[in-house]
Amino acid sequence: MQSGLVNLREVARSDAKRALAEDLGFEVGHWPDDLLALDLSGSLLNQETSARAEIITRETGIFCGREWGLAVCQLVGRSIECEFLQGDGARIEPDEVIAVLTGTPAELVTVERTLLNFLQFMSGIATKSRSYADAVAHTDACVFDTRKTIPGLRIAQKYAVACGGCANHRMGLFDAYLLKENHLIAMGGIEAALPELDRRSPDHQVQVEVESLDELEAAIAAGARLIMLDNFSLAQTREAVRRAAGRAELEASGNVTIKSIGALAETGVNRISVGELTKAINPLDLSMRFVGTQ
Questions:
Q1: Annotated catalytic residue: which of 230, 249, 266, 285?
Q2: Residues of 82-97 as b/e, b for ≥16 C-beta within 10 angstroms?
Q3: CB 194 within 8 A of CB 212
Q4: pLDDT in tens, 234-248
């Protein structure tokens, strides 16, 4: 994720507010005076004594979500403290303690699920991203994410992708051009589209999607410098790399899996976009357990 593009702490706090409102049953714009009272089970516990809890991992993975975890704790706890023992992007192993929390028993059980949801979700994305990055490490290709994200959590997901070692494609429709078939038809073809974009917004990245080798040739001839190969076979991709001959940066896209990405990277493409990084999520198995009370 581009440094300075977003304030992660502000995003994490906003995401945490929405998640807590969903779990505790209130509207974000009407923050309750006594948040803990809304947790029916948690309200049965002592709010005066101090307790200590640890978050541990049950499997190997890449940790991610520190700011989101801190935001949840800060919003819930009057006295809760959370110390992370690993930073985002760190490799973690089974039974490793990754965070220590102190607070009242009521506070800790109230934050538990929302806190773990963010950490498991984001660590799962980071872990999958690392596996994809490792699969192409023997080549010069770079793996990118897509806009196939859960509504409202795009920044969190793209941040987790970056922590796992892959790269971020455009954040949304607002920060880069991607011209697909319908765009090009409506604009009168690529020969008319590219000069218009140069006139309107020369500072924005422009990418053109092609569906055949003939369209690739037309895009290069029109001056396209970043081209997406949509669902090309391995043979077509190799031929596209040969024809482009460095005149344009090529990105392969469409039905890429962890099994197929290595061979795809070996064709010589510069970039490979993978929707599965953010749409097929396997949360990392984490748990929180009390280890003492006072």
A1: 230
A2: bebebebbbebeeebe
A3: no
A4: 999 999 999 999 999
